[in-house]
Predict the structure of CCA-adding enzyme.
Amino acid sequence: MQAYLVGGAVRDELLGLEVKDRDWVVVGATPGEMLANGFKQVGADFPVFLHPRTREEYALARTERKQGRGYHGFTVYSAPDVTLEQDLKRRDLTINAMAKAEDGDLVDPFEGLRDIEDRKLRHVSEAFAEDPLRILRTARFAARFQPLGFTVCDQTMALMKRMVDSGEVDDLVPERVWQEFQRALHEQAPRAFFEVLRDCGALEVLIPEIAPEKVFELAMAALGCVHDQSDAETEERFAAFLSPLDDSVALPRAKALKAPNDCQNLARLVTAFTPQIRNVDPQYPEAEALLDLLDQADFWRRPDRFSQLLNVLECALPSDSGPLNLLRTASKAATGVDPKALLAQGYKGKELGSAIRTERLKRIGDAVAPINH
Ligand code: ATP
Ligand code: MG
């Protein structure tokens, strides 16, 4: 049996990038031989094993053929006679379809090295069209490698367009879309992900509300701004992306994408706050209105989420920094109200509630008003 380093590890090494996880393909072995050598089987559908010491993944060389529609329609064939080249041929992009032998020789039947040098994302074969997830992966690699100069080559873009036109993308399950989507939000150039999806027509199918040019540009500007805050979380990126939409549109879309609850909630708050923030008069702010916003955001119990909300709104509403600063000021002022102190003064139940509210209003009023008096 022969083991080869494959996929991302070979690609990243050639690009001079840090190699995170190393995947191997094994040619000429049976599952029985792998087990006898101490490997542990992991994949239920595919013959994939973990190395007994390094815990790296070793997959037996396999071919995959599409049978029917949808994601489950793949027939996997694995046997000792499957060649390395056959295994590489089932892969998505040429830069991901190279292998390295233990003696260091590069096995590169689809000219991945040339495409690395030319900075091209190119499909390995027409079989690319059998799996619409590859459109999302290609877009994600564009987002990752655009800063290095990579673009999707014309033939691959044309193939992806044909896939979209033939309805392939309709079959993608939301869980898989979300997985790629959320990874793309954290890549170096998230905008490139959405541009590739837009250019091949997949965006119109997957997130049609964002596809119109003006909305797209607003979404990209907000996302880019949040992205520049280097440690922005997924929910902030996601909420920024949906920020140009009305809340009645954003929330169903977030649900349809099966975004996690934290992402849905922040997107809901951002889109619900947008019209209200625009209603705050920066010259004559009303303490009531500001307190109401803090209540809506549940600032009292969720201060961290509130600061995420402000971060995203600052990116989504760059010309409303006045009201946003007031809201920030109001939150700082109101947070000083100590319910325990009021409790100690004898307030209870409903009265305690209104004493807290009165005190918060007073402090907010004092904090935002001085310029007006
Ligand atoms: P990353 O750095 O994100 O891990 P990677 O290239 O290693 O990038 P993986 O998702 O770990 O990507 O997959 C490993 C390899 O398996 C890829 O390089 C590619 O050759 C192949 N591959 C993964 N998913 C697909 C797919 N849907 N279609 C075709 N080939 C795929
Ligand atoms: Mg990998």
